[in-house]
Design brief:
211 residues; alpha/beta; six-stranded parallel beta sheet; 6 strands
């Protein structure tokens, strides 16, 4: 089994990375492969709402000049996905938001590629905005019918300079518990995939509020 973590921080080894490393240690101790994919330092444009991915049905965004399409396939192949981000102005940084909008729209437009994978969101924050960013990240996981791994508090860790989050004893424990719980869910999913039949996927019903 394998978990891929999307690092949405512009810093490759900043606090978001250190939070992921704590989760990853627990996964690896339970025999699960773990890989961090760093996207936060890339030039990733937001979704332009062209509908090309839904029309082409090739599991690709029509914008092919960045790493989004490669990441989609890595996420599709994984058993678990972690979305990790710092906090900019009490929300998801622009590059990470652009990545998520495109990757998850391609997924939903091509048969829900991430359905029933085990997922989690992880947030690194200096002071304020962790809960709102955590909530926003979870929207992507919930919409995709993913199985959410949880911890003993919100998956938020605090620090400013790189590595400072490791001084947040409660935050470190949260990440460790998350890693163990995620490993447990992945093992249960693996052990029961033949004996417990998953519910059939349904075609999405779209409505609006215009009468």
């Amino acid at each position: 089994m394998k978990v891929v973590a999307i690092n949405g921080s512009p810093h490759k080894r900043g606090n978001t990375y250190h939070a992921l490393a704590e989760v990853g240690k627990q996964l690896q101790e339970n025999g699960i492969d773990f890989e961090i994919i760093h996207v936060g330092n890339q030039m990733i444009r937001g979704c332009i709402a062209c509908g090309g991915c839904a029309k082409n049905k090739d599991e690709k965004c029509v914008m092919a000049t960045d790493s989004v399409n490669d990441c989609i396939q890595q996420m599709k192949a994984a058993d678990g996905i972690i979305l990790a981000s710092p906090v900019f102005y009490a929300g998801i940084p622009g590059t990470m938001k652009s990545f998520l909008d495109r990757a998850f729209y391609v997924s939903s437009s091509n048969g829900n590629l991430f359905r029933h994978k085990v997922g989690a969101a992880v947030i690194a924050v200096r002071r304020t905005g962790g809960s709102s960013t955590f909530d926003s990240m979870n929207h992507y996981l919930n919409y995709s019918e993913m199985i959410l791994a949880t911890s003993n508090y919100w998956n938020i860790i605090h620090g400013r300079t790189a590595g400072e989050v490791l001084q947040d004893a409660e935050g470190v424990q949260i990440m460790q518990v998350l890693g163990r719980n995620m490993a447990w869910l992945l093992e249960m999913r693996e052990q029961t995939k033949e004996s417990v039949v998953a519910p059939n996927s349904v075609s999405k019903t779209y409505t609006n509020f215009v009468r």
